[in-house]
Amino acid sequence: MPLESLGLKQYTVPNSPQSVIFALITCNRPMRKLNMEELGRLSKSAYAAAADARVTIVLDNIRSLHNVGSIFRSADGFGVHTLHLCGYTGKPPHPEIRKTALGADETVTWQYHPDTATLLLQLKSEGYKLIALEQTDQSIALTDFKMETEQAYAFILGNEVEGVQQKALEICDASIEIPQLGSKHSLNVSVAAGILMYALRN
């Protein structure tokens, strides 16, 4: 059957060491955005039932309320069960959090804790593995990290300037970092959180 009849076209990559052929899907009509019904968005109760109970995120003294809201939104998008807001991390309800969370602060379960280290000790006693998203002398690349199927994890993200505080790191079981190629070797904490959550789903 000709590829054209399936909506496919063949292309040869120029200057390739081999004759590489690949197919691109083409469409005979303009694409359109999906409407709300087609997106299949979950209700609050359905989200609570579907969220991955193995994954919780700990925010260690995140100063920016916009970052907190953005992390809520990403947590909802990737099915994170719980956010733990620690220290001076802002907490709902707050208009600045709502601005970037877009309602995710109502779907993602969250708890507030005045001290990060105390929370981490509690989570460890409950069987969680504590993984800091931080550049340390023992960190491994996020791309090399794999979750164990039956293991519960708490991933700790730190302050925008200082990162995860040392006393919290000393309680953690391991640290992972996002491989970077540029000169800065740092990412906005909400961007890093989104990358982390996506990687955990893949």
Helix and strand topology:
Elements: E1 8-12, E2 21-25, H1 36-39, H2 44-50, E3 52-60, H3 65-77, E4 80-86, H4 95-101, E5 109-113, H5 116-125, E6 129-133, E7 140-141, E8 153-157, H6 166-169, E9 174-177, H7 189-200
Parallel strand pairs: 3-4, 3-8, 4-5, 6-8, 6-9, 7-9
Antiparallel strand pairs: 1-2
Helix pairs in contact: 3-4, 3-7
Question: Could you please describe the fold and organization of this structure?
Answer:
This protein has a 7-stranded parallel sheet with strand order 5-4-3-8-6-9-7, sandwiched between helices. The radius of gyration is 21 Å and the shape is globular. It is built from 7 helices and 9 strands; from the N terminus they run ββααβαβαβαβββαβα. The model has no long low-confidence stretch (mean pLDDT 88). The protein has 2 domains: 3-32, no CATH class; 43-200, 3-Layer(aba) Sandwich (Alpha/beta knot). A hairpin with an 8-residue loop joins β1 (8-12) and β2 (21-25). The protein has helices at 36-39, 44-50, 65-77, 95-101, 116-125, 166-169, 189-200; strands at residues 8-12, 21-25, 52-60, 80-86, 109-113, 129-133, 140-141, 153-157, 174-177. By secondary structure, the protein is of the alpha/beta class.
Radius of gyration: 21 Å
CATH architecture tag of the largest domain: 3-Layer(aba) Sandwich
| Broad structural category | alpha/beta
Helix content: 25-40%
| Number of continuous helical runs | 7
How big a fraction of the residues is strand?
15-25%
Query: CATH superfamily name of the largest domain?
Result: SPOUT methyltransferase, trefoil knot domain
pLDDT averaged residue by residue: 88
Distance linking N and C termini: 34 Å
- CATH C-level label of the largest domain: Alpha Beta
